[in-house]
Amino acid sequence: MTRPGPLGLTGFPRHGAAAGLAPLGAAEREELAAxxxxxxxxxxxxxxxxxxxxxxxxxxxxxxxAVPRSPMTYQQFVGDAALRxxxxxxxxxxxxxxxxxxxxxxxxxxxxxxxxxxxxxVITQNVDRLHQEAGSENVVDLHGRFDQxxxxxxxxxxxxxxxxxxxxxxxPAFAERAAALGPIDQGPDAxxxxxxxxxxxxxxxxxxxxxxxxxxxxxVFFGENVPAYRVQRAFAIQNDADALVVAGSSLTVMSGxxxxxxxxxxxxxxxxxxxGETRGDALATLKLDLGVSEAxxxxxxxxxxxxxxxxxxxSALSSPES
Length: 322
Ligand SMILES: [Zn+2]
Fold this sequence. Notes:
By secondary structure, the chain is an alpha/beta fold.
């Protein structure tokens, strides 16, 4: 397999602050230089987790800034009508927050690596679709996507938008009554912190319009397995790569941890970027205890410097928060 060689590895660009990121200290530059040296000339698989999207304002279950909470399990969701009702009432308020979120510098850096033909693809544990919005094309949404709903019986897939309209029709006063409660905190996975027992008890949950079956957001709940075809697609990406970068994942769940494990088994390098410990630290060839979007931006600028007019034009158009 032919790969593009390292481009312009002449030290770190001094314009990192152009993307609105804090300038790096000497120790951080040293860590990143080591990562660039390790990754230069390699084809990358990139595995991302919630820590990448916190800079887009999406809360994380884990990590230093996480709010402790116990997410509903798949078994609770399918086994308990009252919990399902609570789930949908909260999701009806929370899902729009994900729709409003925008990709951050880290998502744009990943897309830039792909445009520069330096990646085999992206495997993400996030359901927010921000990689695709940033322009990444070869992405496996390992844990599903927030903007779709699936029928557990006939497997029909609907847009969340469509289901939101059906739920709004079934619950005409819901939005207004929820708004009257004042601001409601947003949680991870399109959850909103609605606690009103009355509002939840009144919420009417829609069934599948094709078969009447139970609907579920099309993402993987705790206690649920990632569908086998998606795992296979993810491994196909990784098998096409000769280095793995894990960005913003604590690797707490096996669905993520198996990827660095497999790379280590193949004797290939694994670079972890995460603030704080991860369950995969012992597997890492190199661990960067850095901000995820900062680190990805600097890696992309070093491994894939702007070298075409098209790339520069794209970056100018999509440069976040500028
Ligand atoms: Zn159905």
